[in-house]
């Protein structure tokens, strides 16, 4: 069985152009949320072609888009050459960086095998500063096969509630066909305890990856 936790799983799909999850624009609910914020340090894990990157940068946010598929990062750099310096080829689960103000979730959690969900929650919590936000689009569905792997709302709440409090939960108005009518816009506020996040001076280059210049 193909393993979506491996880079080569996604590498093959991006090389062959089999990417039905791509093509969506920054949803209006996300646009409204980020437009209302002060400039934030934002992490975009599993960014793929990074279509959400340019509008977030245009709002003044300091965004780092990460993917461990070289083909995905190459595609993003071709599409958004002006933002190529904001792309990082790296494994999200190996990132060692200062905590971000916000992590933007978009088709990343649902791309991971079910057995990696607790690892996702722990790593996300470690990469968001206390009081920061996990904001994004979540695939809320009861699906046995994937990716995308859906989650029921109660299971998602159980996964994230040790570290986050749900602040906003709204239906998503626009979506690509593979997720149609089964995505929700959510904002989860990081609870106020410290997980020993690294400081700015400790953060450089420890993720075994490189920026795409």
UniProtKB/TrEMBL annotation:
One MF annotation (Gene Ontology) recorded for this entry: S-adenosylmethionine-dependent methyltransferase activity
GO biological process terms on file: methylation
Keyword Lipid metabolism: no
Keywords for this protein: Methyltransferase, Phosphoprotein, S-adenosyl-L-methionine, Transferase
Entries under Pfam families matching the protein: TPMT
Protein name: Thiopurine S-methyltransferase
Species per Swiss-Prot/TrEMBL record: Chromobacterium violaceum
Taxonomic lineage: Bacteria, Pseudomonadati, Pseudomonadota, Betaproteobacteria, Neisseriales
